[in-house]
């Protein structure tokens, strides 16, 4: 009995001791903060720092639901997490003195103390682990109160999606306070759904939702889905479980016969270069396969020599062209989708088709805007010419040099007035004044003596043109001078990923419109315009009415030249200013006037629009080759002149001059 | 009017005499056949100048006599150069390729040689295939025929289109300028088949004549150019001397009236346009082997305008005027732009002729147009005592191309 009692007592004591020990242990862990506990549970894994095994540790921290989780991950990723050697606890540490680290507790955020570095062990996650941590962090950052951090997290998802982040992303959408970020989150969610969602229906739904979207990101998401590789099945038996895009015909552009044959495991084909090399290696005493080397300039003798080598067993036989063709013929070539699910690829193809149509439409719009802006540049360059050539019948080859003078005026003004906006505002009227004066001087000194000799005018003004061009070269040098546009003209208006137009071009378009109105006003509403029209129609009669034709011609010529100067400033804003800047536009300007019809501003407008549209249209067919576009455009204009020799809008009656 | 063709045009005889004396003189002063007073490179310059004179004669025919200011004749000139350049380059490359391939252990096949030539010629534009335009490049006879046919055909098609729709005067000038620009832009492309902006080079080396020095080759071309100029001049004089000449002058002065008289104005113009384009092609084919290189920049519209400048300075409407203008302006240009002219020191500024020559040329051109519309050739009227028609200020004809009183000569 006593013995039994003793056993019981002993057992009780033991139990009590055990319980006490248990208690003590619990007490020890209870002292630690909850995050420290989580970390201690996975201490071995954390210290081991291996990319293969670290997963559960990161997950435990990330899914702990503790406030400190994000801080821990950030500190861990930044290699600032240290383990105290004496008790194995983890802290955020910062080197505050010479080999002295200040430790901060994760749970409470209070500074625990300072220790020398030999009491600590740094946790060194490698780059693989850090990227895993980063992924885990994103789900926190998506809900971070700091907007910049959320922005960064979304950007990181946009760059590289991740299947595991799909759920955290979805969860974060509802709580997003910033509407712009919310929109981005929803868009990334759709795109990630397309790539990562395990549910087929959800993916197809997302694909269909994004169909027709113009964003480059959508195309980048969809294109990998429909990427194919060409695979060959020599016996023609294609496994049924493959997601096959289509059968590929050997000999097509996609798969030339030679490439198709290479995909088969037959003996290699011998090219003529290989044949030559083989023959060269087998020259014996000036003969190859019994045929003298001197005869081998003949392709047939080369074949014969090769055949002899094969017969002699020196080299392995090669497939004939027929055998190769037969082998290719027998095999089946199919393009196989990397994506195994046919429903997904079909949906992706449909969506891409819709996107292509949409992109095409928008490209057309973009092209239209380009054409419009090019047309307005031609209009600006040609409007002065239309006045001198159209209204006065004088051909001014130096018109391009007036454009150049305007551009250089802008450049000089910018050297004096550093403020870009102010300098442009000063440069435009100054350019007008300079070229107006030059035009009047030229009219008085040269052109008025040549009014009844138009071909001589052409040559005399050409003489002035080359002299002015060389003069500009002597003064400003041959290198291009920049004419910087003010900041508010520097950007561009972006409608979507396809359609955009730079602000300078819009400004030039507006400028062209302004000049159209100014020109119309001068010609229709002012005394000068009335007199100009009278002199154009009949100089003698106009003179009899008391108009001074000489003065009118002088002012008209000055006006045309002045507008060329302003066009020069506008062109200089987006092109480099060189002494040849006018040459680049002079022929197109002549074309504009000739196509549009002489003596009519609306004709010039139509001509500029037609030439701009034509230029861009041809360029669209062959985008790599602007030279060809110009060639074809000029040929088109020559043919156009066949049908409307007097231009789109021709003067009728006496004003036409014949 | 029973006098012979030469009798009616004594200027032809004088011109041929001067040309002959000039040619013989240069021959006896050359390094190859004479005293060596004239360097080979200057013989080439003189030979090239004779070719320019020939194309200027063609320009005078079409502008001075028919009143069509064509800004495309230098394009025809360049096309002629390209045609002969293709043969020269092909044959020359074939020699090089063949000699290098013959050193290989196995003699090359015909195909390998052609491929090798293609690689050599088109390597610079990233291709090795022969484009279709090179189909006849291995035949001298065919390429020589193309020298005349290609410019002729282009001029025929363009002229037919332009004259048919009655494009005249300044419009026609602009249209020909556009044609020239289109052609040069086309040739600038790498896939035009003519080596893009690299052009054709090494044309001064005649195939098969490696051991003949350039001293002799340059003299051959000089003689050839002189002969071509003589023949071209006589041909042009013959064209303008007879009834045909009267008709085209009539077209220049009053096109409508000639048309109402029953002449096919378009036919006459088209014939003259095409023939002068062919003459220009021949001149170009002689010019570019002496220059050694041809590229699309040579064809740019400005070259054709310069051609008109020469004719105007020399005196349009007279054939010797065109020759004088071309020779005078191009030699003076060579003198000034070649850096031989001494600089003028003004104390505060030194005039370097390389920079200022173009300005002087441009301004003197304006002055000639304004004050001496007859050009240098007008000086001969003073010697020969010819009088201008006194029309009391009336024009010879209403058309834009017609001569005005102060520039008329007969």
From TrEMBL, chain A:
A GO term for molecular function: transmembrane transporter activity
Any single GO BP term: amino acid transport
Domain of life: Bacteria
Location in the cell: Cell membrane
GO cellular component, one term: plasma membrane
UniProt xrefs under InterPro entries: ABC_transp_permease, ABC_UrtB_bac, BCAA_transport_permease
Keyword terms: Amino-acid transport, Cell membrane, Membrane, Signal, Transmembrane, Transmembrane helix, Transport
Signal peptide: 1-21
Segments crossing the lipid bilayer: 377-395, 424-446, 498-523, 555-577, 589-614, 626-643
Membrane topology: Multi-pass membrane protein
Family: Belongs to the binding-protein-dependent transport system permease family. LivHM subfamily.
Record protein name field: Urea ABC transporter permease subunit UrtB
The organism of origin for this protein: Maritimibacter harenae
Gene: urtB
From TrEMBL, chain B:
NCBIfam families the record matches: urea_trans_UrtC
Compartments, as annotated in UniProt: Cell membrane
Gene Ontology molecular function terms on file: branched-chain amino acid transmembrane transporter activity
Any Pfam family matching the protein: BPD_transp_2
UniProt topology in membrane: Multi-pass membrane protein
Keyword Transmembrane helix: yes
Organism: Maritimibacter harenae
Protein name, UniProt field: Urea ABC transporter permease subunit UrtC
Keyword Membrane found: yes
First-listed, main subcellular location of the protein, grouped into a coarse class: membrane
């Amino acid at each position: 009995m006593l013995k039994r009692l003793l056993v019981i007592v002993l057992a009780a004591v033991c139990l009590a001791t055990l319980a006490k020990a248990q208690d003590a242990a619990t007490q020890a862990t209870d002292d630690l903060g909850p995050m420290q506990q989580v970390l201690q549970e996975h201490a071995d894994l954390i210290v081991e720092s291996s990319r293969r095994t670290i997963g559960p540790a990161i997950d435990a921290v990330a899914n702990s639901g503790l406030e400190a989780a994000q801080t821990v991950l950030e500190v861990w990723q930044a290699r600032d997490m240290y383990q105290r050697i004496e008790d194995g606890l983890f802290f955020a540490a910062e080197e505050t003195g010479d080999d002295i680290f200040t430790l901060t507790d994760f749970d409470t955020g209070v500074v625990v103390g300072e220790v020398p570095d030999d009491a600590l062990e740094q946790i060194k996650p490698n780059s693989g682990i850090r990227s895993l941590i980063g992924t885990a962090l994103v789900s926190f950052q998506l809900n971070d109160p700091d907007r910049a951090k959320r922005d960064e997290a979304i950007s990181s998802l946009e760059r590289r999606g991740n299947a595991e982040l799909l759920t955290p992303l979805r969860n974060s959408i509802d709580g997003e306070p910033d509407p712009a970020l919310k929109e981005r989150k929803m868009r990334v969610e759709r795109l990630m759904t397309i790539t990562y969602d395990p549910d087929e229906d959800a993916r197809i739904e997302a694909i269909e939702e994004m169909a027709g979207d113009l964003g480059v990101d959508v195309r980048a998401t969809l294109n990998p889905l429909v990427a194919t590789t060409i695979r060959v099945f020599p016996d023609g038996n294609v496994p049924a479980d493959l997601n096959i895009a289509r059968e590929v015909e050997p000999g097509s552009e996609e798969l030339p016969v030679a490439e198709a044959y290479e995909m088969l495991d037959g003996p290699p084909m011998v090219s003529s270069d290989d044949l030559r090399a083989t023959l060269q290696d087998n020259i014996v005493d000036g003969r190859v396969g019994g045929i003298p080397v001197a005869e081998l300039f003949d392709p047939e003798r080369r074949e014969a020599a090769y055949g002899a080598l094969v017969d002699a067993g020196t080299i392995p036989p090669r497939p004939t062209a027929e055998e190769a063709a037969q082998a290719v013929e027998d095999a089946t070539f199919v393009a196989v989708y990397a994506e195994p699910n046919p429903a997904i690829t079909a949906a992706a193809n449909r969506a891409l088709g819709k996107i292509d149509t949409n992109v095409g439409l928008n490209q057309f719009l973009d092209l239209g805007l380009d054409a419009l802006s090019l047309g307005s540049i031609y209009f600006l360059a040609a409007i002065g010419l239309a006045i001198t050539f159209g209204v006065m019948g004088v051909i001014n080859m130096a018109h391009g040099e007036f454009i150049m003078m305007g551009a250089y005026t802008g450049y000089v003004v910018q050297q004096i007035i550093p403020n870009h906006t102010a300098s442009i505002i000063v440069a435009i009227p100054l350019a007008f004044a300079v070229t107006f004066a030059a035009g009047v001087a030229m009219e008085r000194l040269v052109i008025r003596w040549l009014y009844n000799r138009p071909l001589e005018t052409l040559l005399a003004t050409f003489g002035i043109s080359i002299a002015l061009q060389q003069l500009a070269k002597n003064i400003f040098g041959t290198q291009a001078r920049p004419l910087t546009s003010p900041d508010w003209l520097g950007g561009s208006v972006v409608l979507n990923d396809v359609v955009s137009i730079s602000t300078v071009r819009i400004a030039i378009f507006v400028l062209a419109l302004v000049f159209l109105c100014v020109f119309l006003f001068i010609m229709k509403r002012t005394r000068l315009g009335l007199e100009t029209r009278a002199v154009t129609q009949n100089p003698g009669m106009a003179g009899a009415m008391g108009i001074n034709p000489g003065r009118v011609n002088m002012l008209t010529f000055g006006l045309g030249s002045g507008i060329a100067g302003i066009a020069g400033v506008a062109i200089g804003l987006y092109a480099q200013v060189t002494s040849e800047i006018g040459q680049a536009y002079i022929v197109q300007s002549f074309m504009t006037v000739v196509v549009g019809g002489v003596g009519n501003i609306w004709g010039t407008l139509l001509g500029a629009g037609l030439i701009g549209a034509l230029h861009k249209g041809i360029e669209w067919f062959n985008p790599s080759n602007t030279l060809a576009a110009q060639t074809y455009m000029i040929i088109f204009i020559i043919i156009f002149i066949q049908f409307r020799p007097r231009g789109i809008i021709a003067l009728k009656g006496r004003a036409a001059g014949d | 009017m029973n006098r012979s063709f030469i009798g009616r045009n004594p200027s032809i005889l004088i011109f041929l005499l001067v040309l002959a004396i000039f040619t013989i003189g240069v021959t006896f002063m050359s390094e190859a056949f004479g005293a060596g007073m004239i360097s080979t490179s200057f013989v080439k310059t003189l030979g090239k100048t004779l070719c320019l004179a020939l194309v200027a004669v063609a320009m005078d025919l079409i502008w001075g006599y028919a009143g069509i200011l064509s800004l495309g004749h230098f394009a025809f000139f360049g096309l002629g150069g390209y045609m002969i350049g293709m043969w020269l380059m092909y044959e020359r490359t074939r020699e090089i390729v063949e000699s290098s391939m013959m050193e290989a252990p196995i003699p090359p096949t015909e195909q390998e040689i052609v491929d090798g030539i293609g690689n050599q010629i088109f390597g610079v534009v990233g291709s090795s295939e022969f484009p279709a335009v090179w189909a006849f490049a291995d035949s001298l006879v065919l390429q020589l025929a193309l020298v005349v046919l290609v410019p002729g055909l282009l001029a025929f098609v363009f002229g037919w289109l332009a004259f048919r729709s009655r494009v005249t005067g300044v419009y026609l000038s602009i249209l020909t300028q556009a044609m020239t620009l289109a052609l040069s832009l086309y040739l600038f492309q790498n896939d035009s088949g003519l080596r893009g902006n690299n052009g054709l080079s090494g044309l001064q080396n005649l195939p098969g004549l490696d051991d003949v020095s350039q001293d002799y080759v340059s003299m051959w071309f000089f003689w050839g150019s002189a002969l071509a100029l003589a023949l071209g001049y006589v041909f042009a004089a013959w064209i303008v001397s007879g009834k045909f000449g009267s008709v085209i002058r009539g077209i220049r002065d009053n096109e409508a009236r000639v048309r109402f008289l029953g002449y096919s104005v378009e036919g006459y113009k088209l014939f003259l346009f095409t023939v002068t384009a062919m003459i220009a092609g021949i001149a170009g084919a002689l010019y570019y082997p002496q220059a050694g290189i041809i590229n699309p920049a040579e064809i740019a519209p400005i070259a054709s305008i310069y051609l008109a400048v020469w004719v105007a300075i020399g005196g349009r409407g007279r054939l010797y005027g065109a020759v004088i203008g071309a020779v005078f302006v191009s030699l003076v240009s060579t003198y000034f732009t070649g850096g031989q002219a001494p600089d003028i020191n003004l104390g505060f500024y030194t005039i370097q002729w390389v920079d200022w020559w173009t300005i002087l040329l441009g301004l003197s051109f304006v002055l000639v147009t304004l004050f001496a519309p007859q050009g240098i050739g007008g000086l001969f009227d003073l010697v020969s005592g010819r009088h201008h028609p006194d029309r009391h200020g009336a024009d010879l004809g209403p058309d834009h191309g017609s001569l005005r009183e102060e520039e008329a000569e007969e």
